[in-house]
Amino acid sequence: MSQYFNDSPIERREDDRYGVHAFADALATSLLSITKPVGTTIAVTGPWGSGKSSAVNLIRAELLDRKDETLSVLDFKCWWYRGEEAIALAFLQELNTALKSSLGDKVKGLVPEMGRHVLQAGPVLGSAVALATTGGLGALVTGSAAFAKRFFPEKPSLEKTFRKLSKTLASQNKRVLIIIDDIDRLAPDEALGVFRLVKSIGRLPNVMYLLVFDRALAEAAVRQRFPSEGPHFLEKIIQASFELPLPTPSDLHNSLLVAFQERCGTPEEEYQVRFMNLFYDVVVPYLTTPRHVSRLINAITVTWPPVADNISHADYLALETLRLYEPSIYTAVRQRRDIVTSTSRSGSRDKTRFDPFLAGVPEDRHDRLRIALQRLFPAFEEVTYSGFRESWESERRVCLAKHFDTYFKMSLSDDTLSGKEIRELLERAGDKTFIQERLLRAATQIRRDGKSMVPVVLDEMTSQGRQVAKENVLPFFSAVFEIVDAIDRKEDEERGFAVATTSLRIHWLIRRVADDRFTLEEKSAIYLAATEHAPLGWLVDFVSSAYEAHHPREGREVDLSTALTTKEALPTLVDRTLVSLRQAAQVGSLLYRRDLMDCLYVWEQLAGDGGAEMKAWLADRMQSDDVLVLLARALTSESWTTSLGFGDLGDRVSRRVVRVSIRGDFDLFDTDQFRTALERIVREQRQPAKDLEAVRMFLDAWANQVARQLE
């Protein structure tokens, strides 16, 4: 990604940070498939800053890469001209140049002749650009009526000329695509003039148009000029319109984070949690389009170098965001240095303390901005801080008076499914093949953060779960259960503030779909049928949850309101799970499962023999060093701790901690012998380097864990 100060649209696929190239490729394919256009008009629409021009550049590049010799691509930059007449003349000039380039003398003089009729048919509106048939923009002239009379001598009628040109174009195996971008930059009458040109003299055989504009602005211009027309005006001109797909929020967020890291570096580890807190609470609400992201990146490119390494990364990014998008807040903070850097606040809950800063800001943003101010300045919080000044000083935070001026001394100082996809999932929830194909495909669709689309599909279905028809619940659950292991990716696990796994998401999904819609007996029948062909991983997870509901831990009572099945359904589920566990143990695949420890514990839990069968099998396998390494890996886990913070503000992200799943009541095997064997493996250095590193990490984490327990 370029680090130069630049707000220009992208031109290459490799610069696409938001997945626009897929849309561009699809539209390029559609354009190439139009074999006999007659002024066919396609529109790409989107709001300001959504990346329309970037999409057009990618479409153009894709068309050129396809090397279709029957298609010529021409750009008409309508916003270079001012006045309807100038735009009309420039449009005719570009059309004439394009047709002459592909058809030569066959169309000589026909477009200028049409231009003569068009310009002489109405009043002169202003200065015009000369229509030069030799190419180039020509000279800017005045007195367009006189110009048109000299340039367009008396010739046949417009209708005859149009028919002759149409006949000539229709007989050729050549097509012309005229791209007209930035129509929404024009004045309303000018924009409407472009639409009229395309609809009238532009409606020619083997000519098609790609119009790019903000539909809301265009429709507003139509309403202003033709109140009775409404959206019908554009519908009469445009045959197919495509709204530019909006980037996912995560793509916008990641784009800014990557750019920030490239320009400003990475905050030190001890400050990263706070950085992300401010990022989510202050920055993210303003990252709604690619243009917003670009604007902030451009600001960072200019304002960071003078203060680099002298201020907090987190405070800097938050303040730059406020400077760009909440200038009145930024100015109020700058003017009230003594208030925001005060250390004498006694934990006031009086919200009027925010009033001088929120004056003039729409009320619907007040709550968000109060949080922003609290994140930046402890003086606004409802608690009194003590003992934190040293940490704030180390980070060089803006809340300290000695660092405050550094932030302000410079004057300079952006995964969901479509509604259509969701509706199809709901309508076809009873189609087992469809559901499985969609989830398996989702597992192969990898997003920029490394996660697949599986969490997105499951989360969307969970939110809409009540809409799954009751008669479709059984086939829907069966479809999902049978492929849980196939779609369960470690990379899809959420870290930090929101912890989630694929299995946990499926638990949320089935409870959302079934709870309060079926009796416990009905749910039992559904789950017994749906798990009949379920893989081992999901059987272990589901049956363990169902079993524990009827066998709660000591001191707890059975709560049937949270039970998955009746107690009578458990024997069948337990037998089904034990059969799968024993089969996996026999063939050796059990040892290589990511959920090995869960499988061992559930085996012990369900077998009813105190774990004797499982422990005997495990002891036999532990004679192998390879198995010892596998167990060390399986017993090593990552956990994420989150500080609750002070007052109402806790951390937004969590810290990573490596843990060992061995406690005082661990009884699967002799832990002393296990430690001794692992230490021997490290000394002997016979295992692969990655395995040795895993064993060392396990032993170190185990030692640290024991030490903490002894403190």
TrEMBL record:
<dbReference type="InterPro" id="IPR011646">
    <property type="entry name" value="KAP_P-loop"/>
</dbReference>
<dbReference type="InterPro" id="IPR027417">
    <property type="entry name" value="P-loop_NTPase"/>
</dbReference>
<protein>
    <submittedName>
        <fullName>P-loop NTPase fold protein</fullName>
    </submittedName>
</protein>
<feature type="domain" description="KAP NTPase">
    <location>
        <begin position="22"/>
        <end position="303"/>
    </location>
</feature>
<dbReference type="Pfam" id="PF07693">
    <property type="entry name" value="KAP_NTPase"/>
</dbReference>
<dbReference type="InterPro" id="IPR052754">
    <property type="entry name" value="NTPase_KAP_P-loop"/>
</dbReference>
